[in-house]
Amino acid sequence: MCNLKSDHVCSQRIKMERIAAFLCALIFVTAKGIIDLVANEPLLKLQLPGIRHLKSGKVREIFDLGDSLLMVATDRISAFDCVMPNGIPRKGEVLTQISHFWFQRFAAMIPNHLLARADDPLPAMLQPYQALLERRSMIVKKAQPLAIECVVRGYLAGSAWHEYFNAQTVCGIKLPDDLMEASELPEPIFTPATKAQSGHDENISFKRAEQIVGVDLARQARDASLKLYANARRYARDRGIIIADTKFEFGMFAGQMILIDEVLTPDSSRFWPADRYEPGQSQPSFDKQFVRDYLETLAWNKTPPAPPLPPDVVQKTQEKYFEAYTRLTGRSL
Asked: Are residues 124 and 164 in the same domain?
């Protein structure tokens, strides 16, 4: 009820209240739009003034925190050993949060490099960069990585299929002669590789892996890799995902071998939808194979500079990464 003596004044007050309400709504919508815009802008480069930068990988940036390391997953995506000029928004979140999920699941099986859980607050020195680091960073131990990649294959795909097609072997392991592309192997196999500073990793025999890291460590890494893969494969299959192959990395810390880097992500693994699995051909996937398939349609020689990814490929790739995260964790980002 308006208690003002003048109807004109009352009318003006009502108008002002309506204008104020409209402006509040406009500010909310604008702010939400800015937040959405930022969330959908890929993080491709990262600088943290005052924090010592150690190195850049194809996807990750590594910073020295003194007694620990800060690993930050950007939204960069690579294919054929080339980093694309544009990225996949929030991809770094997917990689980090899936890794946290697997590290937690495997904690009773093998120690890992994590020094903080997924939802722990950032230390004070990193608080100014929370908007950049939140959900895409890990604070980890300063482990010494083993000089081999620990690859486990349960299905015949990628470089393994190409080698098998020519020689019926994978990393020197003789396989049955009646397998097709994407065939399930009689049992998972451990196929180590060297770590290339640039270009492709090189598949090597287990004997060569023993020569590089020593017999005991090579066997320990092999046994741990096969055990972790078997556990993850059963878990994922119950959720509609076939883990065709994956790459683990291990390091030494305080005289003990631990699980490091990323674990069973769409970047380090081949994830196939179980309900669409059909051997004898390339499989649909929840990983960056979709990007590789698109690039194969272009007249590009697979050397830098890489071509930009069109918006529909970016969006579809993001959807695939998000779906992998949701299926595996039961949560959404």
From this structure: no
Task: Give CA separation, 299 vs 147, 257, 302, 312, in Å.
Answer: 35, 44, 9, 19
Residues 205 and 172: beta-carbon distance below 8 Å:
yes
Domain count, the chain: 2
Residue 153 bridge partners (DSSP) = 189, 245
- Nearest-10 Cα torsion for 64, 60, 274, 105: 10
For residue range 182-206, list pLDDT tens digits in order: 999 999 999 999 976 655 678 999 9
Per-residue DSSP letters for 150-219? EEEEEE--THHHHHHHHHSEETTEE--TT--TTPEEEEEEE--EE--SSS---B--HHHHHHHH-HHHHH
Write out the residue range of the structural domain in which residue 96 sits.
Answer: 52-140
Residue 170 corresponds to which tokens in the numbers above?
């994978």
Only one residue has tokens 């929030």, namely 90
The CATH number of the domain holding residue 95 is 3.30.200.20
Spatial CA neighbour of 248 closest among 114, 172, 152? 152
Last residue in a domain, options 87, 111, 140: 140
Residues of the chain with pLDDT under 50: 1-2, 4-5, 23-38
**Domain assignment present for 32:** no
Which amino acid appears at position 23 of this protein? L
**pLDDT (0 to 100) of residue 29:** 34
Res 36: pLDDT: 40
What is the reported pTM? 0.86
153 with 126, same domain: the answer is no
The Cα 185–Cα 210 span in angstroms is: 24
- Beta carbons within 8 Å of 30's beta carbon, 6+ residues apart: none
